[in-house]
Every structure is written in C-alpha cells, then in structure tokens.
Amino acid sequence: MREATLDSVAALIAQHGLSSITMSGIAEEAGIGRATLYKYFSDIDSVLVAWHAREMERSLEQLAAASKTADAADQRLEAVLEKYAMISFEHHRTELAALLHQGEHAVRASRELTDFLRDLLAEGALAGTLRDDVSPEELALFCVHSLAAAGVLTSKAAVRRLVRVTLSGLRPPG
C-alpha cells in the first residue's frame, strides 16, 4: 500500500506539478479511500517526505550499481560521479527538491553519499590514481558540492564537462 501510494505521488507530480498534490488526489490515483491513506500518512507533507526519502534511497542504489561497472577505483569513482551529476541534473531543479531536500532523511542520505564517495576516494588514493594530499572526507565534500551545480545546468553535455572538471581536481598533483 505504501509503495502504491508513493508511486501515485510520483505520477501526480509528473502530470500536474507539486502544487496540485492533495490527499484526495493521491487516494484516487492509488485506488484507495482517503481514510486508508490517512492510516499511513497524517498529511500531504508526510507523504511527500516519504516519497522523497524513497527517491533518495533509489538514487543511492543507482550510485552503488554504477560503482560496479569498473574494476579500478578511479574508474568506479568516475562512473559514480557521472551518475550522481546526471541524477542532480534530472531531478533537483524543481521546487520540490528545494522543499524536501532537508530534514533527517536528507541528512542521512547525504551522509551515506559522502561516506560512499570517501571510501572510493580513499581506495583510489591508496592505488595512487587519486590525490592523497587532501583527506578523502574533504574530497568527498568537494565532489558533492561541485556536482550540485549539475542541477542548474541546461544540458547533459554541460553536466559531463562539470564531471570532467571535478575529476581533474581529484587527480594527484604534478
């Protein structure tokens, strides 16, 4: 029931935008009664936060899958950064992101992302393919914040250029 509700939210946002979302509309789209919906969610904000948390979890799963596409740490990192930038480009230019990209679920997902990148960066530093003169934690934050700019770019080509620039800052100096 929860997944069907969250799928309905996604469909309604895609069709009509965030401002048109109502509990009645969600219940109708999901094919359930409003009373049933209220058993699971107290209000529209709780539904949107649950949907956003699910979307963030799915994004982290996509990044994990991207990391499995190469053997070398620097190549895995490149695949992950490209995927992260494309996710930012496709999903975070909306009013919804500004509204929902806060709260405990967002903090937790951000920490998971930073930890994931930190581990890839540390692995690459040990292999000598990524810089080791800056802590992996700081470099992970650099990646997250530099690639957040993908959310306001106007083309995928621009996103790819941003990823290349970010990667150049991760290579060993010299």
Automatic annotation (TrEMBL):
InterPro entries: Homeodomain-like_sf, HTH-type_TetR-like_transc_reg, HTH_TetR, Tet_transcr_reg_TetR-rel_C_sf, TetR_SbtR-like_C. It comes from the Bacteria. This is TetR family transcriptional regulator. SUPFAM superfamilies: Homeodomain-like (SSF46689), Tetracyclin repressor-like, C-terminal domain (SSF48498). Residues 56-83 form a coiled coil. Residues 22-41 bind DNA. Residues 1-59 form the HTH tetR-type domain. Keywords: Coiled coil, DNA-binding, Transcription, Transcription regulation. It comes from Amycolatopsis bartoniae. Gene3D superfamilies: Tetracycline Repressor, domain 2 (1.10.357.10). One of its GO terms (molecular function) is DNA-binding transcription factor activity. Pfam families: TetR_C_43, TetR_N.
